[in-house]
Design brief:
With 354 residues, the chain is an alpha+beta fold. The chain has 14 helices and 9 strands. The longest helix has 21 residues. It is globular, with a radius of gyration of 20 Å. Homodimer. Keywords: Heme biosynthesis, Oxidoreductase, Porphyrin biosynthesis.
Amino acid sequence: MTGLAAYNASNITVLAAQNNLDSYIQTFMSKPVTDVEKLRKNQNSMRTKMELLVMKTQADFCRALESLESDGSFRVDRWSRQEGGGGVTCVLQDGQVFEKAGVNVSVVTGTLPPGAVQQMRARGKKMDQDSVPFFAAGVSAVIHPRNPMIPTIHFNYRYFEVENQDGSTKWWFGGGTDLTPYYLDDEDARHFHKALKAACDKHDPSYYATFKEWCDNYFNIVHRDERRGVGGIFFDDLDTPNQNEAFQFVTSCAEAVIPSYIPLVKKHKDDGYGYRERQWQLLRRGRYVEFNLIYDRGTKFGLYTPGARYESILMSLPLNAKWEYMHEPEAGSKESQLLEVLRNPRDWLADARA
């Protein structure tokens, strides 16, 4: 990994944090949220490992996108949160390739208010008090390309800790990567799912099928009876088999983002399209907005958190979208073919396994 960082499979150690942390953080889009000296002193802490991972993931993905963009670069917005921690939001708008691309890192601490605690209890988390000290670190991205033939990608990988009254700590990881095309390309979907399956298979051969089904069920616009896209993987509350192995798995998933998506952008960025395709893209973006504002758990959790930074939370929304009353695509059209798959999720790797 270019000598900047390496991960030991048996004992995960960010070598950059041990040997040359200063040089390593120079590769990030911004300096870390946590003071560098604190990171250096706590290099074996999962908090430190996760912060370095999300900062590296953000930087690698932003630079991969910028390498394809002929008109524009990411605006880097480093912010702090009065209640504790902060983040780095990177946004590219009005580019030739990417109409809006956002890649956000947050590393926050504080106390969960009763509303957020109740939301977590509803997910089966046992909280023994109404206000819980917490730590959270994550990276999330949503990319809205200009060309309707390029799909949108979303990914999010995160780590969470809460502290009980007796001083004990509970921790878990969550995240996933999913693809939202405007026009169906079976080869694209297979490529995308194959990259995610390879990341899962490094750790547990049961992960891909389990997390693929979870993704199909989670990214479901219930009131439309449509999935948001062609799926991917999604998981939450991952606390097995142990902390280091769970971190290894999340690392593999984060490293799979670029090879799963960048080839699709290169393949389609110069494809031709017209007014009809653009209008369909705007309608599908409207569906994206509906899911994020009505169903997305991360969006709602962020809005519940004291000191929430709304610009970063709503970064996932597209620059342009459209809602048309009672719209239904023409039978047999390419648009209706996509809708059929969104209503009936497919096993994209069935042919490969056969």
